[in-house]
Structures are given as structure tokens and as C-alpha cells.
Amino acid sequence: MIRIRRAEPDDAGLLLAWANDPVTRAASFHPAPIDAASHAEWLRGRLRSPTTRLFIGLEDDVPVGQVRLEADADGRVEVAISVAPAARRRGLGQALLAATLVVGKADAGLGARVFVARTGPDNCSSIALFLRAGFHLAAADQVCNGVPCLVYERPA
Known about the structure:
Helices cover 33% and strands 35% of the residues. The protein is of the alpha+beta class. It has one domain (2-155): Gcn5-related N-acetyltransferase (GNAT) (Aminopeptidase). A hairpin with a 2-residue loop joins strand 2 (52-59) and strand 3.
């Protein structure tokens, strides 16, 4: 069973290690490795942001992935998810995403009207994950950071 908790400053090392995993970097819109100082600054900003929620997924109290929700003023909440390298291919991403969407929908501070996910057209794992979670393809002609991307949406 997966449960989630809010990320904390002490999670910086874990999150950086997951972010710099070669599979994660290859699927990212920013494929270059992330340095520790830049990551620490990014994490501080995300944890302070009133429109961002960053969660750590736990299986038997072992961290297995992270999900970030970032809301805009129109109630569009961007979803970013990654599963820890050691936890992949076990279906945990689906449970992690489902738990986070429930919490995100109930979070009045986010004002979620629709959840939005962006992924590369070759990222079959993410595409399958979002489709199984009830997202639908909303746009196939977008560019994210100079890279083609697909946009999936799901009503909150």
C-alpha cells in the first residue's frame, strides 16, 4: 500500500539522487544532470511556494517516488511524477499518482479544476500511467523547453 507525505528540506539528497538517475534525466525536458546547489535552491522555492505541493510516496515507510503538483491561477494543476529506480516496474507509479490526485483535489489552496501532465512523445511509461489514471490527450503539438511534448488532462 502506498501512502504519501509532504516533502521536507531533509529530502533534498534523496530527491536529487532520483532526479539525476539516468533514466529520469533521459525522459526529462531538461536532460542535463542537476548540480546540488541548483537543486537545493529549486527545492527551497518549491517548498515555500503557496501553489506547489511536493509529495514523497512511501511503501512500508520506504520512499519509492515523488509527485509534484503546481497550480496556476485558473485551477490548472501540473503533475510531475517520478518513481525511484529501485521501485520501478512494480505498478507503484499508478498508486502514487492516484493517492496524490485525491489529496490534490481536496487541497483548497490549489483550487484544482483540471490536472495537466506533459510528457515526451516517446515516454511510453508516462503515457500509459496517465491514460490508466483517466487522463486524455489534450494536445499533441506542444513544445516544452524546446522538446516536443504531449499534454494530457484530467478533470479534478
